[in-house]
Amino acid sequence: MALYKQKKNQGSKGGNRLWISIAVLGSSGPIRFIVNEEQLVAAVIDTALKSYAREGRLPVLGSDLNGFLLYCPSVGSDALSSAETIGSVGARNFVLCRKPKSEKMEDNHGRSTKAISRKTTTGILKAWIHKSLNLKISFHSFIHSLMDMVENMCITVF
């Protein structure tokens, strides 16, 4: 005769459990763990950062959950609100990204404007060049595209 263990009542924990997968930009693979569907997005980001650090993954992200956004590619291009529950999205695959950094500058009239951080644009440019070289596109189209990209980066966002 087989012995069976009695299952715990999951209803008393406040909802169903979900197996989610969070891809971190720049990392080798996604982080997978179980969350409660009633858990807030902020708590999921915190858990993901702790798991990422515990596994010793690179690049090092830090532990400030306010510096990150969680996206769901299957739902749309907007980041999820940190006050939203993870189960309300209806998906199980997510992407964790750093919040874009912006610098405030003043123009000639004393108005403050936002400009894209030089460090961020340099990283984007470097990644684009690396990707272009890996695709082995022709040198002429590479230079032409590079010039277009540099012109677009020089535009200040107001």
Which CATH class of the largest domain applies here?
A: Alpha Beta
Overall shape: it is globular
The share of residues in extended strands comes to 15-25%
Largest sheet: 4 strands, mixed
Return the structural class: alpha+beta
User: What is the CATH homology-level superfamily of the largest domain?
Assistant: Phosphatidylinositol 3-kinase Catalytic Subunit, Chain A, domain 1
CATH architecture of the largest domain: Roll
SSE string? EEHEEEEHH
For the record, the count of structural domains works out to 2
Strands of the largest sheet, in order across it? 2-1-4-3
* Average pLDDT figure: 75
The level of helicity is 25-40%
| Structural Rg | 21 Å
Explain how this protein is built.
With 158 residues, this protein is α+β, with helices and mostly antiparallel strands. It contains 3 helices and 6 strands, in the order ββαββββαα. The strands form 2 sheets. The protein has a 4-stranded mixed beta sheet, with helices on one face. Helix 2 packs antiparallel against helix 3. The N terminus and C terminus are likely disordered.
Summarize the structure.
Helices cover 29% and strands 22% of the residues. The chain is α+β, with helices and mostly antiparallel strands and 158 residues long. It has two domains: 85 residues, Roll (Ubiquitin-like (UB roll)); 52 residues, no CATH class.
